[in-house]
Amino acid sequence: MAFALRKRGPKAFERAADGSMTLIEHVRELRNRLFRASLGIVVGFGLGIWLAGPVLHLLQQPYCDLPKSRLANGTCNFVQLGPADLFLLQLKVALWVGLIAAAPIWLYQLWAFIAPGLHRHERRYAYVFTALAAPLFAAGAVLAYFVTSKGLEFLLNVSGGGDITTTLDITRYISFITNLILLFGVAFEFPLLVLMLNFVGIASAKRLLSWWRVAIFVFFAFSAVVTPTPDPFGMTALAICLSALYFAAVGVAFINDRRRGRGKEIYAGIDDDEVSPLEFDADPVVAGQRVDSTAPIGVPEPIAKPAPIERRYDDMT
C-alpha cells in the first residue's frame, strides 16, 4: 500500500505513486501525522479546561432537575470522597471535550495517512459513512441523556423514602452518565455495519430483511442490559430506535441492490415447476448435398514408381 507524502517535494510524490516508499519513510509520515494530531488535541484540551465547568453543570442537570435531589434549602449537592476527585474529574472532562473539539484535526490527519492507499470507490464510501456516523452518535447521546433523567427519577422514587437523604458521589455519577452516553452513541452506529455488509456484497437486502426477528430480539436484549433502570420505558425507547434504524438501513440496502442490479437472475421470475423459455433462435436444418453412389470410395491413389538409378562405370570400383 502506497501512502502519499505531502509537502516533501515532487520526488516524494513519485515514490508514493509507484509504491517504492521505504519503511522508514512510512514511519516518518506516521510520526508527522501523529505529532500534528497531538498538537490539535493539546489545543482542544486547553479549550476543554475552559469549558469543563459548563459541561459538568450540563451533566449534573438530569439529577438536579429532580425534586428529590433538592435539599431543604433548595440546592443540589454532590459529594467527593477524595480531596483531588473533583480536580481529576475536571481534567477528565476537559480531555473528552478536547478530543471532541479537535476531532476535525486528528481525523483529517488519520484520513490523510490512510486515504492514498484506498481506491476511489473506497474513499467515496468512507466519506458517506463518516458523514452518517457523527449525527448517529449525537442522536444516541441525546437519547442516553433523556433515558438517564427518567431512569434516575424512577430509582429515586423506588429507593428514597422516609427520612433518607440521597447524595451522589460526583465522580461515580459523571462516570455513569458518560459511559451511558458513549454506549448509546456506539449502539447507534449499528446501521452503518448493516449497510457495510450490503455495500461490500456480503448480505443482500432480502437476506437482511429476513433477519428482522433476530435483530429485534437482539436489540431488546441489548437494551435490557445497558439501560440503568429496571423499568421498561428506557429499554423500549432504545430498542425501538435501534429497530427503526435497522429497517431504515435495510431500505437503503434495497435501493443499493436495485441500483446495482442485484436479484435479477435469469430464473428469478420462474416457478419451480415452470419450464424456462429458450432465449435463442435455433439454426434451421437444411438438406445436405447428394452423394454420388457410383464414385469409388476409399480407393487409394497409385503410388508413383521411383525413377531408375543410372550407373556409371566407376561405381564398381
Number of strands: 0
Briefly note the structural class of the backbone. Answer: mainly alpha
Average pLDDT rating: 76
Instruction: Determine the N-to-C terminus distance.
Output: 84 Å
Number of helices: 10
Report the biggest beta sheet as strand number plus sense, adding barrel if it closes.
Answer: none
The helix/strand order is HHHHHHHHHH
Low-confidence stretches: 1-18
Outline? elongated
How much helical structure, as a percent, in the residues? 55-70%
* Radius of gyration from the alpha-carbon trace, in angstroms: 38 Å
β content, as a range? under 5%
Description:
The chain has ten helices and no strands. The chain starts with 9 loop residues before the first helix and ends in a 57-residue tail after the last helix. The chain is mainly α. The chain has helices spanning 10-17, 23-64, 85-101, 103-114, 120-159, 170-187, 190-199, 205-210, 212-226, 232-260. It is 62% helix and 0% strand.
From the structure above, extract its key features.
317 residues, mainly alpha, 62% helix, disordered N terminus
Task: Give a brief rundown of this model.
The chain is an all-alpha fold and 317 residues long. It has ten helices and no strands.
